Amino acid sequence: MNVKVIVRGKTKGPLLVAKNPINFLGGIDKKTGIVHDKKHDLFGKSIGDKILAFPFGIGSSVGAYTLYSLKYNKCAPLAMICIKADLTTASGCAISNIPLVVVSKDDYDLLQENKEITLDAVEGKIL
User: Fold this and answer.
1) What's the CATH code of the domain at 122?
2) pLDDT by residue for the chain (127 residues), tens digit each?
3) Which residues are catalytic?
4) Rounded to an integer, what distance in angstroms lies between the CA atom of residue 75 and that of residue 78?
């Protein structure tokens, strides 16, 4: 899998895979990490302690601070995998020390929900 590292780090955990883009400011409860956007395919699920895969982020740049709040409240994702790294997601991951990588659409489509993976965002590998 071809991986482009945006924010460095290493982690291991289960995958949570979204079909839709995520609006961190309007769609995620920053105190619990639960998706509260009723229109999102991850509605009702927690993004905390998972490796979150989603196409890209949408919405306000203030979403970066939502990521920071998630980390502060101990309900942030372990890492993130995107098809496109938008500025909000990249800056939120950077200030929160959440590893972030970008993969191709074809590789993204191979990601399997709940599969335990190791994400090495230093060497650029997903195992």
Assistant:
1) 3.50.30.10
2) 889 999 999 999 999 999 999 999 999 999 999 999 999 999 999 999 999 999 999 998 899 999 999 999 999 999 999 999 999 999 999 999 999 999 999 999 999 999 999 999 999 999 9
3) 60
4) 9
